[in-house]
Structures are given as C-alpha cells and as structure tokens.
User: Fold these one by one.
Assistant:
Number 1:
Amino acid sequence: MRAGIVGFAASGKKTLFSLLTRMAQAGYAAGARRGVLAVPDERLEIVGRLHKSRKLTPATIEVVLIPALRRGARGQTENLAALRDVDAIVHVARAFEDPTVPSPFDSVDPGRDASKLELELLLTDLAVLEKRIKRLDYDRARGIPEPVRGERDLLDRARREVEQEVPLREALSVEDRRRLVGYGLMSAKPHLVVLNAGEDEAGRDPGSWPGLEELSRRPETRLATISARIEAEIAELPDEDAAEFRRDLGVEAGAAKRIIRAIFELMDYATFYTAAENEARAWLFRRNTRAQDIAGDIHTDMARGFIRAEVVSYDALVENGSWDAARKQGALRLEGKDYPVQDGDVLLIRFNVG
C-alpha cells in the first residue's frame, strides 16, 4: 500500500509526513521523499504472544511526500508525477490561521484549496489522455491496429469527463479504471483530504468547513481533521500525558491512527495475520479478497501451488488461547481458494509446488 501526500506551500504536509513516518523534517530537499508508516496494531501483539513468536512484523504503508505546489507556478506536472504509482492521494489542506506562517493565498480556505488541487490533477490527467489518444490515432492512420480492443473509446470517454472537470474516480466504473491503471491517472485514485486545523479546531467535523460538505459525499473521497503542529508536540509526551492532552482537544486518537483509519475506510482495507514461532506478521488487503490471491501476496509459490487455507478468526484464537486449542475446539476452518478472507483472520496456507 502506497499513499502520496500532496498540498500547497505552508499547509503542514511535511509535519504530517514526519508524524506518520517518524522521520525528521531536517534535510528536506527537492523531489519526492519516501518513508514508511508502521501500522499500529494491538491484535498483532496478542497474535504473536499466543504463538510465542520471536518477532513481530507490522503491516506498513509507504508514504510519498511530493514538493509543495505553489500558486500559479508552472511545471507542477513534474512534481505531481510522483503520485502516479500511489494507491491513494492524501491532500493536506491548510485550515489554520497563523500570521507567522504566510499562506501562498490571500486567505485560508481549505475548500478552495481542495478544488484547486483537484483541478491540478484533472489537468495532469488530461495531458496524459490526449497524448495517448493522439498516439493511437497516429497508429490507426498508418494501419496499425489498436493494441487493446476498446482502449481508444474508453480513453475518449475519460477525456470528455475530465474536460467537464469530473474526477475519474466518480466518472468511471472500477473495471474501467482497472483497465486504465497503467496510465497512473490521478483523478481516478481514492482521495483523502486532511484538514490541518488550529489547536482550537482539532476536533472539528471536517465537513463543516465551507465548500467541503459536498466533497465529503463524493465516491472514494474521505475527509479528516488534525492539528499537525499540536500533534507534533503531543508525540513528544509520555503516553498517559498524550492521552490526556488529546481528551482536552476532543480527539480520541493520535494523528497517525486517525489517518490510518481514514485510509482503511477509503480503500476498504483490512488486516489478516500469519503466525509461527519465528514470526507473527500483519498484512493489509482489500476486504473479501480470495484466499488464493491473498496467498500470492505472501509468496507467488503459495498462489501457484495453493491447496487450502487453514483459518482461525482473531476472536476465536483469543477465546481458545492458542492455535492448537482452537483446532481442538473446532474453531479452525479449512477453506478453498475462493474463500473471501475476513478482517482479523489468522491464516496458514497449505501449498505444494513440487
């Protein structure tokens, strides 16, 4: 899973990147910066303890921070290109007032900024679509057949939607977007808008800012509110003090957990586990993915030689106290390749590639 963080200058996106990846801001340079977010997971700790695992490996999200977009600047397409290979776009929109941190605009308006960024993504997509359509038309004129049947018509339909400023995540079906995934079209990607607010609005409903209520209802779009500066200060406190501070702010969890939760909802992600004495590991997956496809995420040989999946739910594992006890109590299930894996499943994949 890869998430791209983007935003205009002075929005606080570097602070959020540091909070998520625990990487210092010092040394930030031109070009995209990459870090890794380890997903906090109390269930993994329990799964590992019940299996007496020597090592715990949490699920991770790669986080890509691209350089700030600037008002009226040219050449921003090059910066946005770093978003082509991400699975979801996280837009940090400034919602705080601070005269010591000048805004690139005349006022602080996260609704306006969200619209401006969407337009930047649409313009970038339009350039990609027009270039590919032009190439296909050129080949057709020379008698070269279309490499993928229906591609030209789909690209033209996508172009018309983009010209009408309709994001492709709203305009195209999941299947059509899957057919165009190789082009890295940005408006086709799920979109999380993070409102970076001041301390007094850290718990504010993100849809309550002007211009964002409608956005919150759009397909594959989520909103979240944080106060990145305050969260950076809280991150330095002991856990008990940090929890009390957040209660005073009216937020129930840290920024990282709230962003992860929003990304999970946005992407329809869940977690399954594998465990043995050497390692217990958490894995991210889209809900209801087939067991054989899940096996392929672990190792390609597992998918190729898939026999069955032995499955114990997390709740059943905890209730019985161990994998062997769950087996003896009939809580272990044998599932075939088409089994839709569920959140919290602990899996043992049986396979043979001999």
Number 2:
Amino acid sequence: MSVHKLFSSQASTVGLFCDCFPPVMDGVAVCMQNYAHWLQQMVGSVTVVTPKVKGADRSSLDYRVIDFFSVPVPGRPPYVTGIAEMDPIYLTEILKTRFRIVHAHCPFATGLAAQRIAKVQGIPLVATFHSKYRDDFSRSLPKVAVDLVIKAIVEFYEKADLVWVPQESVIDVIRSYGYKGKVEVMDNGSDLVADYPEKYFVEARQSLGIGPEEFVLLFVGQHIWEKNPRLVIDALALIPDQKFRMYFVGEGYAAKEMQQLVSEKGLDGKVSFVGSIKDREQIKTYYAASDLFLFPSLYDNAPLVVREAAALHTPAVMAKGSTAATILKDGENGFLVDNDPEKLAGLVKELIHNPERVHRVGVQASKSIVRSWEDCVGEALDRYNVLLASRGLPKIERLP
C-alpha cells in the first residue's frame, strides 16, 4: 500500500472508490481520474481508494491515493481486485481517515469498502452504476452464478443513499437487473473540451502521416467482442475499393483475434492496431485526425469515447437500439446503423463521399453531447451537498 500525498491532517472531504484507476485505463478510470482532479481543485482533501497496480506511479497527483493489496481478475487483464480490509497497511490508513461523503464507482471490492466505511462513520454513500455487469459475467460464469452476482449488485445499490447513472437510457439497464429504488442521471464529461483552430486538425493528420484526401476511421476502446468490432471489420471488408484508413486503439482479450480477422479479410494495408494509449494528448491527436468514429457497441451503457471523439468534431456511428446510442439523433449529431455489415459498409461508403456532411454533423456533436468534466463534477458536488443537508450534515465548502 502506498499513500502518494502527505497531508497534515487525515481528514478527507470526499472519498472516491473504484476498482479501476490509472494506469488501468477504461471509461470508468477516466471518470474517476477527473472526479478526483476537479474535486481536489474545488474542495481539496480528496482521497481515492483503489486496488494496487504493479508499476503505478502516482507521485505527481495532487490528491491522496490509498491502494490495497490486489490479485489479477481471471481472464480480464489488466484488471485487479482484492478485499481492502485484508491489507493491514490499508486498514491503518483508512481507520485514521474521516470522510464527509463517499462515492463508489463500482459495486465490487472498493464499492463494498466504501459501503462499510459509510456505515461505520455514519456518512452518506453515493454509488454510480456504470456498466452492463451481467454481460461481463455471462462470458465466464454459468447463468445460476451470474444471477447470484446480479442479486448481490442490486443489494449493493439498494444500500446506497443515492444512485446515479451516466445516461437516461441506463436506467432501463439497472431496472432490468431488479433494482427498484430511486435513480438520478448524472452526466459524464470530457476532458478534451476546448476550441480547436483548424490548424490543429491539419497538424494532427500530418503527425500521423495521413494524406489530405484520406478518409480516416477510428475505434477507441477495449478490444473485446462485446463491443462489436467484428461488425466494423466485416463491413470494411465489403468496401475494399474505397480509400480509407482505420485505426483501432486499445487492448483486450480479443486483440489478437481481431488482428487475425483483419488479415483474413485482406485489410492489413488499410487497418492499423495502435495498442493502448494512456497519454491524453496522444489520444486527442487520433480523435482530431479522424473523420468518423465507428463504435457500434451493443455492450456499453454510456461510453466516454463517443463524447471525446465529438469534442474533436468526429461524429460517431453507433448501433440502432443500443443503450449507448440514445444520445444521438441520426444525421444530426451522429449516425445510427443496423447491426449488419452490409448496412454499415453502405453508410461508411456514402459518408466517405460526403465529407462535408460528416464535418457538419461532427461540429453539431461537439455542441450537443459534450460537457466539461469541471462542469459535471461541480454539479456532482452540489448534489453531494443536497444529500448531506437531507441527513442534517454540514455541506462541503468550496475553496475560495
């Protein structure tokens, strides 16, 4: 266990708990990172609780991190888990820390730790429901075991004082699991919000060696079949005569199989696998250099990557009827397509020949679905204070 920021007092205004945190990178980790950063700016004395990750260097962070002994999640590298209270050094530190409110971003190891702390200290617990957990566990567990896990997840959220989802459509997901309590929508943000001059986009393409006439397609996310990358690869194989370049950014258990499929389809010269990118400036370059973001996932609830791409004027193509796609209006701030390779191929071909339309929709996406993390976290803080007031507890004051 390591504490990467020394404080004169062990009092912590907000405790943020999550099983994934950089250097493990996914949408929830990015969310946690931005909550921690902006809350530290707004109120100070923020503490992140997360499992220990080998090689993690958190010395430059301006907020406190307490990590605890962990083990790898079977079949899901680089994810880790553990039982926080089994780490005596974690226990020593956490027992010295007094929180005002705790916010769990997952219902597993750290979520349960947050739940126990809230009970012991008599403080509110906020819990955000981020993911389609049933889909995650159905891949490796029999149905009877999955049902037991989902039951435990629902019980976790039933014990929270406030339950948030990042998108309206995700309410249907948590309801389908059996949760009947109150749910509020709390938007996720983007750390890529800014006014970018046209020169920035030109330089981004030049830095990646992209010609001015090339149409660039992008996928960013875990390389897992649940995110539907097979649809993208199968569709691109149907338009070999079109001039495009496709980048897959990320890592995951299906990465090698995806690369093999690309080779089998004869797309090696058009499709590149970049691997995981942890540097935010570098990933911004890929968003800025791309024309279209292909993300037909049937698995995701509210993927941050769609909003990140939109921040750089890159509109998304998403699957009709998917939970994630409900933020888009077809042809206005994104594009919707049936879960069919021929339909996707036809749409991509049409858009390759209409770059002005793609650009127009991308600009509208940046205006309609992108919100800064600073704004989102500020609203979250206001909601924390409403909850604290309802419990007769003092509100969290903002720093001057």
Number 3:
Amino acid sequence: MTASQKLSQGLRTFANDIAQGFFEVTHNGFALVGLAVMFAVITLTARPDLREAGEIRLMSWLQARQPVAQAMEGSVDAIDRATATDPQDLPKQQATVAYWLSKKYRVAPEPLSALVAEAYEIGQRTKLDPTLILAVMAVESGFNPFAQSPVGAQGLMQVMTRVHSDKYESFGGKLAAFDPLTNLRVGAKVLQECIRRAGSVQGGLRFYVGAANLEDDSGYADKVMAEHLRLQNVANGRVTAPTTAQAAPVTAPAKPQPVTEPEQLAAATNLS
C-alpha cells in the first residue's frame, strides 16, 4: 500500500469516526429532550396546580409583551379615536356652519365638522336647535375641549363635572368630560333640562350659567342668543363673513347667591 493510499484511508476513517460521534451525541441529545418533555407532561398531569401556575405566568408574559408589540407596530387605530370628520362628507348646511365656525374661532374644520354633525343629531333627538347648542359651545369655550374654569366647569360646554358626575357614568366616568362628543352630549342634556325648567330659552340659559337667582347674568344669555342668531343666518344661507377672533370667556355674575341642590343640578356652568 502506497503512502497516498494510507493517507486516504486514514482520512476516511477519521471522517467516519466524526460522523459516528456526531450521530451518537445528537441521538442522545434528542433522547434527553424527549425524556425531559415526557417528564414535564407527566408532572403537569399529576400536578394541575403547577400547570395552572404555568398558564398564568405564560399569559402574563404574553399580555406584557402585547403593548410593546403594539407600540413597535404603531397605533393603527388612532384614526378611529380621532374626533374629526371631513367637511365634504357633511350635508351642505352643516358644512357651511362648520367652515364658518372654523374661520371665526381658528379651529381646524375637521374636528369642528364632527361637533357640528353631533350637534345636529342631538338637536333632532332633544328638540333643541343645533345652532343653539353650537352657540353655547362658542361662548363657553371657544371650542376648546380642554377648557376649565376656576370653579371646575370643564370641556366644550363647560359642564360642572362634580355637579353632573352622574351624567358621565354611562360614558365611563368623570374624565369623559374631556372627550369632545361626550361633553357635548352631557352639556346638551343639561341645557335641555334648564330650558324645560325655566320655560324659555333665555331663562334656560340663565339657569345654565348659574345665574337663575341673580338680577344680572353679565350678558351671558344675550351673547349666546346673538351667536345663535348668527349661526341660524349662516345655516340658512345668509352668510356673513366671520370676525376672526377667539370668543372671550364669559364672566359669571359678580355676587352669586347661595344655591340649593336642585339649582346646582340645573346649573351646568359658572365661569368666574
């Protein structure tokens, strides 16, 4: 046998030894994994408490990972949470009102369109003129959904959240006061109750601002009614160019009288 043949035979023997060793190692490894799995199954079957604890820990881990995964993917449902509507999707009258308010109060037309559409829907349901609801919002907050007065009136319609907290329960609690549509719905309900109690829109507005027992409401009702008339003209096609300026906060009556609990329930706002 030549030297080259001996070398070739040696290499083949070396390769066979390596292959055999690898097979034995992997075979034994798989056998160990199989035994471990079988032991785990037997243990979990015999100990349901361990299985339950493991399921709880696994579920907790998955739930903890879910927000991370969502944050990495991005908040794809943000558009669903946005309070906005394309003005072009509204009926012509509502779109006209939305554009007019947008220019006057320097608010984007898309969120205003959502509010206008909601005001018209609520108005139909409650028999309130939607332009009156919008006028109250304009005078109360200038369409700032996060507005708050020193005495606790909050949101678009400056509802006294602590007084009307019960009205927010069906919406998830008092923090819903800062959701524009929720505040609009609650404010419209309070306004409806005030008008019904007073017997007139003008008197209802005095109740709404908390001035039912006062001689002077600091011009609040007149301001709302004036804006209400302007919005009616806009809605009916008698459009006048809006004065581009933010609505000034309304000043509450200077010397408020002590009010009773029923009167507190009727008074939604108090912009001191």
Number 4:
Amino acid sequence: MSIEFSNAQRAEVLTEALPYIKRYTGKIVVVKYGGNAMINEDLKMQVMEDIVLLWLIGVKVVLVHGGGPEINDLMNRLGKKAEFVDGLRVTDKETVDIVQMVLAGKVNKTLVNLLEMKGGRAMGISGMDGMLIESRIKDERLGYVGEITKINIAPVTDLLEKGYIPVISTVGCDREGNTYNINGDTAAAHIAGALSAERLIMMTDIAGVLRDKDDPSSLIPEITVSDAEKLKVEGIISGGMIPKVDCCVEAIREGVENVIIMDGRVPHSILMELLTDEGAGTMVTGG
C-alpha cells in the first residue's frame, strides 16, 4: 500500500534529516552488506539507493560485501558440497577458487553496476587488490579460510579521495600468492578501523541484540563494550550473535566511533539509522 505525503510533510522529513546530514557529510561510513538484504532484489535496490543518496550528500560510503548464498549456489551447480566447522566454510583449493570467482567477480561487479545505475560512481576491488587484506591460514582444519594479519588501506582511501564508492569483496591474500576466504564481518571491522570510520553498519537478518531472542520488541538500543561482555556471560548474546558482536568490539577498539547492528530486511534501514531521530538496531559504543 502506497502512502501519500503532502509537500509540507516532505519538507518536515528533510528538515529532520538536516542535522544528521551536517554530522555525516565528509565523514566515512562503512556498510557491511549481506544476508537476506542481498538476496531479495527489491531490498537490494533500496540498499543501493540509500548508499547513493548518502554519497550524493557528501558521505564517504565504503561498501564491504559477502555472498555466501551465491557461493553455495555455484558449488551446488558444480556438484561440490559445502562443509562448515564452527560456522566457517571449509575452503579447499577448489572452493577458494569458487569464492574468488563469485565474490570478486559476479557479486562485486553486479553491485558496482547497480550503484552506477542509481546515479553513483562506484569502483569494485577485492582484498587482493593492492594487498588490501593480507592474511594467513586461520585453522588448518578449515583450509584456505584466512585470518587477517594486516590491512593496507591505501587503495580504499585513494578511491574515496577521487570521489568513488569503494565496493570491497572479502577475499584476502598473502605474500606467497595464496588466496583466502575472509569472514565479511571481520573484514568490515578491520577496514572500518583502518579508516577510523565515523560509523560501521552491520546489516544482519535480525533487529539487533535482543534481550529475548524470540521477542523482537526486546531490542536493546545501545550497549557498551563492557556491556557486551556481561551480556555474553548472561547468555543474552549467544550463538551466531557472539562473533558479530566481537567484530563490533574489535572495530571500536581499532578506532571506529560506533557500530550499528541492524536488520537489513527493513526497507531503507540505513537511512533510518543515519538520517532520522528514530534510528535502527543496536548501537555498540566504547562507553
């Protein structure tokens, strides 16, 4: 159902956004993009629109993306079964080639093309370009799953200075020429830290940190780094939310002003968070 707005209501919305526009213009915001917001085509278009709008008002947006479902799809078509250990994809030599093909190729260039279609100027790179994400083997059991050893941020800052939206696929490398599959949340945290970003937005498939995982209304709007440790001990932060919150804490410790965990399935959630009084999701701060 479409909702009609009067010109006065439109003006009021823009007026409300003005202090936020002033706050973020010229600042760096890193968006980690994945999950259902990436699968649903309508949501994907809205995310691209949000990013281009922010870019047009002078926000320096960096888009870090995953692509797990697309990797699974190609593996299935090639007759290769996906295996996971502790939530991480076991990545042999053939699988890492598939990861590179999908993330640095199809997914990355599709997102660049969509941003350009919406009126932005985007440039796609992988963590291998300019040795952006230097890595080593994280765990022998996982094969070519990488642990980040260094972020060489110059390729990203060069693109930002030239007015591009950098679109980064999370494929890493080492000095011996090996390629690594890098967790997208971890990569986004390290990249945001290296950029001293104003904000890191982690788009997920849930509303944020919930006091009761089965009750969306129990959203905790803000937590500090010390709160996060207490909530883990209490079992409120558990399961798949633990590594996500750990990435948020890592980003804060590396110099990011604050991190938002938000539901990427909500239309225009990025704009709601950055440009309205309402906000979205759970904010993690240094405290």
